[in-house]
Amino acid sequence: MFSSRRRGSTPVSALSSALAGWLFLIAGGAALLPATIIPVSAQSDAAKALVDGAKARGLVGEQGDGYLGFVMAAADPALAAAVAEINAGRAQVYRDTAAKLLAARAS
Does the predicted model carry a pTM greater than 0.70? Predict the structure, then answer.
């Protein structure tokens, strides 16, 4: 499993190196972002309250791709609409952020 490991390297040190690399990339990417980027706020207070309650009950959770998802199929149309509203807002923020990063990289 660890046949590609360098001599003297341990799984823990390899993991530490990988984490350090990711943290460096994240910090570097954050430094490229202008201070005017607005956090995910393209959501209504009602949608946020509804989703927060559903999260607390274990009906909705954060997915690895940055969007909200249902643990089980949504039975409540209002909750499904709230999740869709928040996910649409997140998608717009992700698109805007990507465009700004690409513009910064091009200049």
Answer: no
